[in-house]
Amino acid sequence: MLPEYMLTYPTVFAAGDSYQIFVPFSDEVILWIEAGGRKFYDHCCGILRSGKRMHKAEIPMRMLDEAGEYTVVYKKMIDRRPYFPLSEPERRLTLPFRPVPAEGDINIVHISDAHNLVAEPVAAGQAFAGGPDLLILNGDIPNHSGCVENFNAICEIASGITEGQCPVVFARGNHDTRGICAEDMPHYIPTVRGQTYYTFRVGCVWGMVLDCGEDKRDTNEEYGGTICFHEFRQQQTDFIRDVIADASREYEAPGVRHRLVISHIGFTHIDRPPFDIEEELYREWTSLLREHIRPDLLLYGHYHRVEICPPGCEFDSQGQPCTAIIGSKPIFDKEKGNGFVGCALTLREDSTVRVLFRDHTGSVLTDEILL
Ligand SMILES: [Fe+2]
């Protein structure tokens, strides 16, 4: 049972060296998180924030991993006047936290393209008794960014699958870039140095999140001249090169046993017009991955289907460095009811991967071992 005003369990995003913990509320509150004997405030230059209903506190990963639990502390504001502001007494919620293990099998749930569905992707994500070790939310979780309420779907799905007790990785999708609130999204999702592309390290898993932005050219009339994703993708080419230059602290760091590359759009696939964009730039990304980073898996959403795509298959236009998994299929059906197929992965100690495509009723459509 959630305490008053808290809309979902916290979402513990893993990004860079930190956990960024987001909690949505129904009312104006101030918030901090206690872990390992320290307090981590949601503040702006020393001012505790209460103007937005989404709250965020950042904690160094090592501190929360060692603490194994955290407490969300908040107070509802009654009157935030300039002098002697009034608030209600503190409310507290303490939760256990399971870091991703440093060895052994790692259970991952991958959900994308929920397009504001919540109950169905949450049901599809119940693949592991006791919950997964890591949840990956891979874009288009809200239907669009036309209103801030749509962003709640992110925390609602994470809450339903993790209950705030394990890390979550987030990648932005192309529908997330549409609407007046898209520019405000970093108040609702994790970023590193203000960017939606970054690397992360959880237990024995290293990962890189890339953000292709939109799926058509910046000049497409659908966007009315409001985007500059070509520039943004060029920035990421430099970012990938920087990661390679720092390999010994990134994917070659001691203890890394699995390497994932996560992107909403499958940049190794050249789609039909008008989605056939950035062939040269995406070829460069693909060859940098193939020649240097050598990931174990590419994880994609976007295509509203579930599929295992080995190198050389029809989907592979650019020379994939490894198998790609397209890992979610939303089902919109007004007559029979909505549904969802998600993906569950087990990264096994012997370097094989078990892939399950599982729907909201618990039926397993695919159960394969990748060697
Ligand atoms: Fe998409």
Q: Can you describe what's shown?
A:
- The chain is of the alpha+beta class and 371 residues long.
- The mean pLDDT is 97.
- The protein is 15% helix and 34% strand.
- The chain has 5 helices and 22 strands.
- It is globular.
- A hairpin with a 2-residue loop joins strand 5 and strand 6.
- The strands form 3 sheets. It has a 15-stranded mixed beta sheet that branches. Strands 3, 4, 8, 9 and 10 form a 5-stranded antiparallel beta sheet that branches.
- Helix 4 packs parallel to helix 5.
- Fe (ii) ion binds next to loops.
Mean pLDDT: 97
Class by SSE composition:
alpha+beta
Number of helical regions: 5
Task: Report the span from N to C terminus.
Answer: 42 Å
Number of strands: 22
Regions with pLDDT < 50 over 5+ consecutive residues? Answer: none
Sheet having the most strands: 15 strands, mixed
| Rg, Å, rounded | 20 Å
**Helical fraction:** 10-25%
Q: What is the beta-strand fraction?
A: 25-35%
Ligands (ions, cofactors included) = fe (ii) ion
Care to give the gist of this entry?
This protein has five helices and 22 strands.
Topology:
Layout lengths: L10 E5 L2 E7 L4 E7 L2 E4 L1 E2 L2 E2 L5 E7 H7 L1 E11 L6 E2 L3 E6 L9 E6 L7 H6 L9 E5 L13 H11 L4 E5 L26 E5 L2 E6 L18 H17 L12 E6 L15 H15 L3 E4 L4 E5 L13 E9 L7 E9 L5 E7 L4 E7 L1
Parallel strand pairs: 1-13, 11-12, 12-13, 15-16, 16-17, 17-19
Antiparallel strand pairs: 1-2, 2-7, 3-4, 3-8, 5-6, 8-9, 8-10, 11-20, 14-15, 18-19, 19-20, 20-21, 21-22
Helix pairs in contact: 4-5
